[in-house]
Every structure is written in structure tokens, then in C-alpha cells.
């Protein structure tokens, strides 16, 4: 029996795995249903569509930047299982608001003045929900798993997250907006039930919680980043997520305006990305044989940059359609360049998964268990800042008149930054091993 199969049979892992999977599924079903509806049914210009996509990404990410320090403190100083129960109950209330916004949008009632603001409010609240759940889903692993199980558990959590993203993205592209409104509410209820099954996880440390989010954020990042290896891991992960933020912003308007493809095809793009990250997450665990190391990080992200450039050239060579109708999935796949385009997209994602998973495992295993949640929270603060910066960069480039297809080359340049940081981390890792 493999370690992964073994973990999926145990209550110390399975309820957490299911809960985070459902949460990621609901996040992406809701967010993509909202973005695809607005891009394809409300706006009719690449700049407006890219602007809304970037705005939605920023609205979801901002809570991570502001509240991650508080979330990390709570996760380290309170029972993690109890926090999960509270957070998942709040998800039910959030999805009531988000579902109402989707239904109003479907009916065409006050779309700009009420429906879209309600949807963005719920998206912001889901960002808050994910901010408080994020440190727990990684920090609880060393508490419930054995040392040799942590990498496998991290890989399963990452793979499960991206499989959930895949499923939520598929559903958002294929079902109606009113069906999405009902689905997100029901899934939130199921997630709450599974969250109640997570075994107790008593606090690893005691202390006074600083509720001043700005001071605690600055202190948390400063106190966490003094270790060179942790600093490099966090910075490398942040570069990766700034890349991911820009790509996810680009996909819907790129599909509609450059490739003349329907929202189902835009959903297919996100699906391919999610499948690839899941494959990369599992593959790197097999390559490293359970050892947490950044050995393959530089090569992985350089490969990602190469695939981004190839994706750019395939999009540039895409033929201009003969009529104004958007291509459905069948018509899109029948195009001569469709398979090369999807394969390059898959390559981007596989390489990305291979890059980022060992770095998350590093953060949960190379620090004391009493500091794990706060380390993840510090990582979330820096990651979210990088993602907001990526979103703002995409908005600025669009406002400056740069086509989305050309912005892909900016993404490739970001990959080189990640490769450099990954190389520095591996060298620091070897140096620490030599002096141990």
C-alpha cells in the first residue's frame, strides 16, 4: 500500500482532505461562474473584460494580505479543528449572499448596481474564509501525520486542491448561472459537515494574540524571514503565484478575443492548467521519493518559462475566424493548432506543480511545529502581495495598450526570477546539510 493510499484511509487525514477539496471546488465554481458570466454576458471589450478579471482576482486576494498574520496566530494558538468548524459554517452564509448575486445577474436585475457588487462582496468574504483556512490545511499535517508522511500529505492536499479547481472550473463553464447559485450553497453545507469530522488539533503554542493586523503582519513577516532558507522558499513561491495570478486573469479574455472561443473553451483552459498542476504535484513526490528538497525547482520553472513562450507563439499563429461566432469546444478542438495549444498549456502547469509543491513541504517541515501555521501565514502575506502586484501589473499593461497575448512574455520573464530564487534555495539547502 502506498503512503498516499494509506493516508486516504485514515480519519487523521481524510476529513481534512475532503473539506479542503470541497472548499477549493466551491471557490472556483463561484469565482469562475461570476467571471465568465460578466466577461461573456456583460462587457464587450478586451480591456473591460481583462479589467474585471483582474479586479475579481485582487478582491479575492486582498484578505490574504491583510488577515494572514491573524489567521496564523489563531491556527497556532487555538484548536485548528475548531477553527475549521467556524470557518466552514461562515462559508454557508457567504454563499447565500453570492448565490443571491448570481441569481440577480441571471435575471438581469440591477446587474451593475446590485448583482455585481453582491458577487464581489461574497468573493471578498470567500477570500477571508480561505485566509483563515489556508494556514490550517498545511500546519495541521505535521500534527496528524508522521514525518515521512508529510510530503505525501502535502502532495495530496495540492493535488486535491487542483483537482477541485478542475471540477469547479468545468462546472462553472458548463452549467447555467442560476444552477451555480444553488450549487455553491449546497456544497458549502457538505463542506461544513465534513469539516466537523476533522480530529481535534490542540494548539502547539500558547501566547497572546495581536489583533492589530498591520503590526502583526509586519512582525510576522520579519520574524519568519530571518531564516535564509525560509525567506528564499517564500519568495520563490510568491513569484510562482504572481505568475499564476496573471495567467488566470488572462485566460477568459484571451479565449474570447484572441482565439474566438466560447466560455466553455475558457473553462477548458483553466481545466488544463489545474490538471497539469495536479500531475506535477504527484510527479515531484515520486521523483524525490519522500525527501523534501528544492533540487528540481530551478529546472521545473525554467521549463515553465519555455512552455509559456511556446504558448505565446501558438496563440499568435491562431487563425482569424471566418465568422463572428465563438467556437464551442468541439469546433475549437478541431482547429489545427488546438492540440499544440492545449499541450503547451499542460506543460506550463505540470512544470509549475513540480516547482511549488516541495517548497510548501519545506515550509511545514523545516520550522518548529509551534511556528508552522505562522510560517504559512507569513508565506500567504508575501504571496498575496505578489499576486496583487501581478494583478495590478496585468491591469497596467492592459491600460497601456499591451495586448494580452504579448503579456504572456512578461509571465515568462517572471519565471526566470523564480528559477533564480529556486537555485539559491537549493544552494542554501546543500550548505545547511553540509554543516549539520
TrEMBL record:
Q: How does it sit in the membrane?
A: Multi-pass membrane protein
Q: Which GO terms describe its cellular component?
A: plasma membrane
User: Where located?
Assistant: Cell membrane
Q: Which SUPFAM superfamilies match?
A: MFS general substrate transporter (SSF103473)
The record's listing under Pfam families reads: MFS_1 (PF07690)
Q: Which GO terms fall under molecular function for this chain's record?
A: transmembrane transporter activity
Main location (coarse class) = membrane
Q: Where exactly are the transmembrane stretches of this chain?
A: 50-74, 86-108, 114-138, 150-168, 174-193, 230-253, 265-288, 300-319, 339-363, 384-402, 408-428
What are the UniProt keywords, alphabetically? Cell membrane, Membrane, Transmembrane, Transmembrane helix, Transport
Q: Which domain of life is it from?
A: Bacteria
Q: Per its UniProt record, what PANTHER family does this chain match?
A: MACROLIDE-EFFLUX PROTEIN (PTHR43266), MAJOR FACILITATOR SUPERFAMILY (MFS) PROFILE DOMAIN-CONTAINING PROTEIN (PTHR43266:SF2)
Record protein name field: MFS family permease
Amino acid at each position: 500500500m502506498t503512503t498516499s493510499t494509506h493516508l486516504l484511509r485514515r480519519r487523521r487525514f481524510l476529513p481534512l482532505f475532503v473539506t479542503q477539496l470541497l472548499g477549493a471546488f466551491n471557490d472556483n465554481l463561484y469565482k469562475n461562474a461570476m467571471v465568465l458570466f460578466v466577461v461573456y454576458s456583460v462587457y464587450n471589450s478586451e480591456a473591460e473584460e481583462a479589467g474585471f478579471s483582474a479586479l475579481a482576482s485582487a478582491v479575492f486576494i486582498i484578505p490574504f494580505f491583510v488577515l494572514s498574520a491573524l489567521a496564523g496566530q489563531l491556527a497556532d494558538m487555538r484548536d485548528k479543528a475548531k477553527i475549521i468548524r467556524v470557518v466552514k459554517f461562515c462559508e454557508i452564509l457567504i454563499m447565500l449572499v453570492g448565490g443571491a448575486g448570481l441569481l440577480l445577474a441571471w435575471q438581469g436585475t440591477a446587474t451593475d448596481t446590485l448583482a455585481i457588487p453582491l458577487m464581489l462582496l461574497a468573493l471578498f468574504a470567500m477570500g477571508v474564509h480561505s485566509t483563515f483556512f489556508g494556514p490550517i490545511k498545511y500546519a495541521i499535517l505535521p500534527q496528524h501525520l508522521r514525518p515521512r508522511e508529510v510530503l505525501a500529505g502535502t502532495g495530496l492536499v495540492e493535488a486535491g486542491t487542483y483537482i477541485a479547481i478542475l471540477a469547479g472550473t468545468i462546472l462553472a463553464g458548463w452549467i447555467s448561472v442560476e444552477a451555480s447559485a444553488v450549487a455553491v450553497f449546497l456544497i458549502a453545507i457538505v463542506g461544513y459537515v465534513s469539516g466537523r469530522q476533522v480530529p481535534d488539533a490542540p494548539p502547539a503554542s500558547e501566547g497572546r494574540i495581536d489583533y492589530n493586523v498591520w503590526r502583526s503582519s509586519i512582525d510576522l513577516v520579519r520574524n519568519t524571514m530571518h531564516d535564509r532558507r525560509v525567506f528564499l522558499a517564500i519568495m520563490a513561491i510568491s513569484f510562482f503565484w504572481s505568475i499564476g495570478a496573471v495567467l488566470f486573469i488572462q485566460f477568459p479574455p484571451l479565449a474570447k478575443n484572441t482565439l474566438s472561443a466560447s466560455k466553455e473553451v475558457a473553462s477548458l483552459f483553466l481545466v488544463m492548467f489545474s490538471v497539469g498542476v495536479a500531475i506535477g504535484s504527484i510527479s515531484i513526490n515520486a521523483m524525490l521519493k519522500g525527501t523534501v528538497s528544492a533540487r528540481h525547482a530551478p529546472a521545473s520553472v525554467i521549463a515553465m518559462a519555455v512552455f509559456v513562450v511556446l504558448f505565446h507563439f501558438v496563440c499568435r499563429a491562431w487563425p482569424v475566424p471566418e465568422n463572428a461566432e465563438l467556437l464551442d469546444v468541439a469546433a475549437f478542438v478541431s482547429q489545427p493548432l488546438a492540440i499544440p495549444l492545449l499541450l503547451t498549456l499542460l506543460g506550463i502547469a505540470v512544470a509549475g506543480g513540480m516547482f511549488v509543491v516541495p517548497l510548501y513541504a519545506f515550509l511545514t517541515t523545516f520550522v518548529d511545529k509551534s511556528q508552522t501555521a505562522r510560517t504559512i501565514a507569513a508565506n500567504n502575506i508575501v504571496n498575496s502581495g505578489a499576486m496583487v502586484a501581478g494583478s495590478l501589473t496585468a491591469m497596467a499593461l492592459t491600460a497601456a495598450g499591451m495586448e494580452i497575448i504579448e503579456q504572456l512574455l512578461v509571465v515568462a520573464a517572471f519565471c526566470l526570477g523564480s528559477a533564480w530564487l529556486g537555485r539559491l534555495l537549493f544552494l542554501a539547502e546543500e550548505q545547511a546539510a553540509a554543516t549539520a
